[in-house]
Amino acid sequence: MDKKKILVVEDEASIQELLKFNLERNSYLVEIAESGEDALDAVLSFSPDLILLDIMLPDINGLEVCRTVKMNPKTRHIPIIMLTALSEEADVVAGIELGADDYVTKPFSSRILLARVKAVLRRMFALERVDGDFINILNIQIDPSCRSVRVGGEKVELTFTEFEVLWLLARQPGRVFTRYQIVDAVRGDDYPVTDRSVDVQIVGLRKKLGDAGKNIETVRGIGYRFREIS
Fold first, then answer.
1. What is the pLDDT of residues 105-121, one digit of tens each?
2. What letter would DSSP give residue 59?
3. pTM of the full predicted structure?
């Protein structure tokens, strides 16, 4: 199997070295970009399988880099994990809204970062295989062809909007979705979908799923995600 290529966009030398060492030790090919402009050049020349992107960069900030990558049809498929400071919650939300797939806060554990990298790469591979197909995940069975949901074999009646929310989250376990992303993805006629009404939908969905509803996790200050499969 070919080694996965990771572009690290980070201007601090100590963090560059730490990331490069740990990623290469885990059999990834690594290229470093120290600025936003260098990152955009490297995305085209290096063709990474994943980008680790710091938000605070000396020229173009990470959010603008993310926006540019995700707006380009040739590069928008590349997953992005943002590296952020603990105080940058608003930037995390903005990055995810722009298409970032996950985030890790500084200071970070190398083990946690590597786990996030593996999870995002695994998720991207899985997406190529499950699009439009039946899903059986953590005791929940979802069939989009007839819009049916079963928990442990027992049928669960969901509204149009509840089904759309569950389908969105369950297709990409571990990925965080903001409320606005959920609103954009859900176009139901049976409920006026707004950012705050998403919270009401989640409460109702969890209740109908019973114990399996615990698999829908709240990410404080950001949104929601379906529990990562271990």
1. 888 889 889 988 988 88
2. S
3. 0.73
